[in-house]
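Subject: design request, 272 residues
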């Protein structure tokens, strides 16, 4: 889809890191960049306005491009509204899981945005893979589509991850001795979900992996040296879900690299 890359600015170092990442991404996508600060205070506070103007000036210098805006409202609500016409929304994620303020804004945006949202917590590994969570749902398929497009545009390998937990057969948990059969079944399912996108992006080197872990920690493990981690926003499969809403919310706090959260019904930006 067309539209700008929108990035939130709040005067923190994490926001400046997000601004720099957003500027590089906007340049790669040949999209305009919007640097957005949202204030909830009433207009007329001159000292506060001057401080915010300083933040926006600093963000403009860090980005080297872009149009800065000061908007009144609630940060998450404004960013969600902007997502309706944006190509991408970028927010700084919490530096630590206990950083509730940054985590709350990011979590609210990823839940309701209508375009892909990037939560920038940790720097990327420039030569690392794009990692994507796969679960066989429409939400998961949207994430896979986006991940393939990103990997193709970046010239990066793609690692597709399926997590397996709480498997049931006839209403009873599977036993440990069933694990080889489980891996075989899930590998076949994973290959099936990836096949259409392999055909559309034949240049992308793909590595599929089935991990016996919770969705959150399977993805955190797989993305420790990744360039991007991509997940969907909701939906789950009976035995191999990795794209539950709770998963994306937890990854806002724990992702070890830039996290891209893709809503179910969104068209991927065309690679430049």
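Subject: RE: design request

Done. Sequence follows.
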């Amino acid at each position: 889809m067309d539209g700008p890359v929108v990035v939130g600015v709040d005067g923190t170092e994490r926001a400046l890191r997000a601004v720099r990442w957003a500027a590089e991404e906007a340049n790669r996508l040949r999209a305009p960049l919007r640097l957005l600060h949202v204030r909830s205070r009433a207009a007329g506070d001159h000292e506060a306005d001057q401080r915010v103007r300083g933040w926006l000036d600093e963000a403009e210098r860090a980005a080297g491009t872009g149009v800065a805006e000061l908007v009144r409202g609630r940060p998450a609500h404004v960013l969600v509204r902007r997502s309706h016409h944006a190509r991408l929304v970028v927010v700084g994620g919490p530096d630590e899981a206990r950083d509730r303020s940054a985590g709350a804004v990011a979590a609210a945006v990823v839940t309701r945005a209508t375009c892909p949202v990037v939560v920038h917590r940790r720097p990327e590994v420039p030569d690392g893979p794009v990692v994507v969570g796969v679960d066989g749902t429409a939400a998961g398929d949207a994430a896979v589509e986006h991940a393939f497009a990103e990997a193709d545009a970046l010239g990066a390998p793609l690692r597709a991850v399926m997590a397996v937990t709480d498997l049931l057969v006839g209403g009873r948990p599977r036993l440990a001795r069933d694990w080889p059969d489980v891996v075989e079944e899930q590998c076949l399912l994973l290959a099936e979900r990836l096949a259409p996108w392999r055909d559309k992006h034949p240049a992308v080197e793909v590595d599929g992996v089935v991990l016996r872990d919770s969705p959150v920690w399977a993805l955190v493990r797989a993305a420790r040296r990744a360039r991007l981690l991509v997940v969907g926003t909701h939906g789950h499969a009976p035995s191999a879900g990795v794209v539950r809403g709770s998963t994306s919310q937890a990854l806002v706090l724990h992702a070890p690299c830039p996290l891209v959260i893709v809503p179910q019904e969104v068209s991927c930006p065309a690679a430049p």
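DSSP finds eight helices and twelve strands in the chain.
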